[in-house]
């Protein structure tokens, strides 16, 4: 069985879970990372397995992730849905991904709503941890041992979606004394929101904070008064860890 991992993962939480799952199959997976760029269109066969992963932003996956997933078509191809979120809730993200993939010819066989470090504040900073990843591997093994599902998978969520999603509420700032102009943030921004000067950030920003987490010089940060208020509130409110949820 050919196994493929497809993920949109600005801060690598989703990537970690999806990687564990595809490795648990025992196959050598094909890995397609659509975080920073589109993929070529691909069509998958009925005897393949594709694991799709994306983060949850405001109860839905980001629009850019949904658009990049649209490049992939299935022919009644088994698929797995992975939605990672920062300990608040995944809201309608699972059913949204189910709708996207089903419309493109995939047959979702299972789904996971899993916890990773929140983009804002200091929320669940140690997740995914070893126990989380072990749960992900066990889920995949149970899925592979189950019978193929031809009917729609029952998942929590609302249709029509009640969640509204979010765009860029907070734009990262640049410490000019630390920035060396390497251009990593420009190249890696999922939506191309960072100008060539490495400091100017457009309204296309989705506040994924990929540039903050990945800058080798620690030259990106978020420090507005509103951001600090929101981050402090969420850090306190979301201190109690939620469990991962798996659906077969």
Molecular structure report:
The chain has 248 residues and is of the alpha/beta class. The chain folds into 2 domains: 3-162 and 241-247, 3-Layer(aba) Sandwich (Rossmann fold), CATH 3.40.50; 173-223, Alpha-Beta Plaits (2-Layer Sandwich). It contains 7 helices and 10 strands. It has helices at 13-23, 63-69, 93-103, 130-145, 184-188, 210-214, 225-237, and strands spanning 3-7, 30-33, 42-44, 49-55, 72-74, 77-85, 106-115, 173-174, 220-221, 245-247. The chain has a 6-stranded mixed β-sheet with strand order 2-1-4-6-7-10, sandwiched between helices. A two-stranded parallel sheet has the order 3-5. Strands 8-9 form a two-stranded antiparallel ribbon. Strand 1, helix 1 (13-23) and strand 2 (30-33) form a beta-alpha-beta unit. The longest helix is centred in the middle third of the chain and has 16 residues, at 130-145. The protein is globular. The mean pLDDT is 95. Keywords: 4Fe-4S, Flavoprotein, FMN, Iron, Iron-sulfur, Metal-binding. GO terms for molecular function: 4 iron, 4 sulfur cluster binding; FMN binding; metal ion binding. It holds the Pfam family Fer4.
Order of strands in the sheet with most strands: 2-1-4-6-7-10
Number of strands: 10
The CATH architecture assignment of the largest domain turns out to be 3-Layer(aba) Sandwich
CATH topology of the largest domain: Rossmann fold
- N- and C-termini, Cα separation: 20 Å
Task: Give the CA-based shape.
Answer: globular
Radius of gyration: 18 Å
Sheet having the most strands = 6 strands, mixed
Mean of pLDDT: 95
Helical amount: 25-40%
Q: What is the CATH superfamily of the largest domain?
A: Flavodoxin domain
Tally of distinct domains: 2
Which range does the strand content fall in?
15-25%
Pfam family, one: Fer4
Domain Flavodoxin-like: 3-144
Protein name: 4Fe-4S ferredoxin
InterPro entries: 4Fe4S_Fe-S-bd, 4Fe4S_Fe_S_CS, Flavodoxin/NO_synth, Flavoprotein-like_sf, PSI_iron-sulfur_center
């Amino acid at each position: 069985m050919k196994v493929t991992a497809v993920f949109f993962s600005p801060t690598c939480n989703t990537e970690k879970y999806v990687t564990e799952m595809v490795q648990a199959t025992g196959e050598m997976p094909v890995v397609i990372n659509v975080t920073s760029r589109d993929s070529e269109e691909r069509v998958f066969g009925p005897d393949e397995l594709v694991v799709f992963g994306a983060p949850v932003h405001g109860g839905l996956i980001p629009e850019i992730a949904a658009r990049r997933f649209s490049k992939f078509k299935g022919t009644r191809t088994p698929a797995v849905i992975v939605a990672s979120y920062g300990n608040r809730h995944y809201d309608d993200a699972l059913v949204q991904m189910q709708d996207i993939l089903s419309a493109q010819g995939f047959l979702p066989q299972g789904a996971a709503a899993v916890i990773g470090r929140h983009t804002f504040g200091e929320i669940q900073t140690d997740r995914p941890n070893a126990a989380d990843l072990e749960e992900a591997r066990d889920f995949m093994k149970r899925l592979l041992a189950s019978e193929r599902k031809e009917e729609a998978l029952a998942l929590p969520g609302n249709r029509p979606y009640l969640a509204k999603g979010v765009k860029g509420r907070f734009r990262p700032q640049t410490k000019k004394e630390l920035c060396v102009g390497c251009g990593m943030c420009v190249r890696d921004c999922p939506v191309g929101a960072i100008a060539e000067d490495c400091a100017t950030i457009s309204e296309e920003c989705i506040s994924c904070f990929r540039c903050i987490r990945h800058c080798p010089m620690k030259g990106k940060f978020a420090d507005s008064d509103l951001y600090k208020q929101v981050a402090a509130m969420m850090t306190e409110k979301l201190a109690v860890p939620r469990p991962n949820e798996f659906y077969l």
